[in-house]
Amino acid sequence: MVEAAVASWTNPAALAYDPDQPLPDLRSIFRAALADGSVHWVKKGTSPATLRAVVTRNGGDTLGPDW
Predict the structure, then answer these.
(1) For each successive 10 residues of the chain (67 residues), what is the average pLDDT?
(2) Is residue 5 part of a domain?
C-alpha cells in the first residue's frame, strides 16, 4: 500500500499500476507496506526504476541505492 497525491487510502483501487504507463503521482514522502510485512519510508526523489522494481510481483529485481 502506498499513498498517492490524489487517491484515498480508503479506496486502494483508485491507485492503479500499469507497468506500461507513467507512475501515479505520489506524495512527497510516504510509507510503503510490503508483502513481507516490512514498512519503508519512500522519498519523492526515489527513481521510477526503483519504484517499479519494488512493485514487481515475482521479485528478484535489483533495488536502486535510493531504496
Answers:
(1) 59 70 78 83 86 80 85
(2) no
